[in-house]
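Table S2 (text version). Query chain:
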Amino acid sequence: MNDTYADGRRIVASVWNESLGGAHVVTGQDANGSNNGGVTSYGSLFDSGDVLTIRICRRNGTDPSTEDKCNERTVIV
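Corresponding structure-token output:
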């Protein structure tokens, strides 16, 4: 993603395991299309049959905001 407006645009993806009470599994992000992001694992795993919530957001800046553009899906693995 190109940061045409120099406002810190980034893609952020997060996964939670609803079968473990909403435990945070992982978050990854990349900014400005330059492969300079990172992945943070929270130590929660998932098994076949678990229910996961996946959220992918386009964000300006580093902190969550009401301006984030997000899509969220719940899936069974």
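Notes on Table S2: The chain has one domain: 9-76. The chain has a mean pLDDT of 83.
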